[in-house]
Design a protein that fits this description.
Length: about 70
């Protein structure tokens, strides 16, 4: 499975490390992914999903408001 959020689509991106002398070397920025059990109200069962932590915060907020994910 790729390093990609199943809900938001966040994935590894590229950039530069910058030293004090402003020398640039390539690096990667990886999303903070967690494997979580997410409840699916349509089927009534839990499914494992690889989601970013920012989506988990959004999901918690939506569930608190009574909205669907």
């Amino acid at each position: 499975m790729s390093r990609k959020c199943s809900k938001t689509g966040k994935k590894t991106s590229a950039g530069n490390n910058r030293s004090k002398s402003m020398r640039a070397t390539k690096r990667t920025f990886k999303p903070n992914l967690q494997v979580k059990r997410v409840y699916d109200p349509e089927t009534g069962e839990y499914k494992k999903a690889k989601v970013s932590t920012s989506f988990l915060r959004t999901l918690a907020k939506r569930l608190q408001e009574g909205k669907r994910a």
